[in-house]
Design goal:
With 112 residues, the protein is mostly helical. It has one domain. Helix 1 packs antiparallel against helix 4 and helix 2 packs antiparallel against helix 3.
C-alpha cells in the first residue's frame, strides 16, 4: 500500500505526543487535587491550563492521522472509532498504537 509506512509513522508520533500530554495533564490533575489543593482555579499554575489546551489541539491532529491511517488500512468503522477514542483516555493511545503496530506487522503491511 502506497504511503502506509509514512502514515503509520505520523500516527505513531501523534499517538505518543497526544498520550504524553494527556497523561501529564491527568497526573497533574490528580496530584493537584489530592496533595496540592488545586481545587481553586486561581491557585493552579498557568502550565496546567496550557497542557489541556495543547491536548485539545494535538488531539485534532491525532484524529486526522488516525483517520488517514484507518482509510489506508481499510479498518472497520468500529475499529477506527476505538483508535480515535483512545486519544481521549489517559494512557490508552499508547496501547492503541501498539495494537495497530502489531496488526500491521501481522498483516505484513509494514516493512521489517
Amino acid at each position: 500500500m502506497k504511503g502506509l509506512p509514512a502514515a503509520f509513522t505520523r500516527y505513531r508520533i501523534m499517538a505518543w505526543v497526544t498520550g504524553v500530554v494527556l497523561a501529564s495533564a491527568t497526573v497533574w490533575l490528580v496530584v493537584g487535587r489530592l496533595f496540592l489543593d488545586y481545587g481553586d482555579a486561581e491557585m493552579r499554575p498557568a502550565l496546567y491550563g496550557y497542557l489541556w489546551i495543547a491536548h485539545g489541539w494535538l488531539y485534532m491532529l491525532y484524529l486526522i492521522t488516525g483517520v488517514d491511517l484507518a482509510f489506508r488500512v481499510r479498518y472497520s468503522v468500529g475499529r477506527t472509532l476505538l483508535i480515535l477514542i483512545a486519544g481521549t483516555i489517559p494512557f490508552a493511545s499508547f496501547f492503541a498504537e501498539a495494537a495497530v503496530h502489531k496488526d500491521l506487522k501481522k498483516r505484513e503491511l509494514l516493512p521489517t
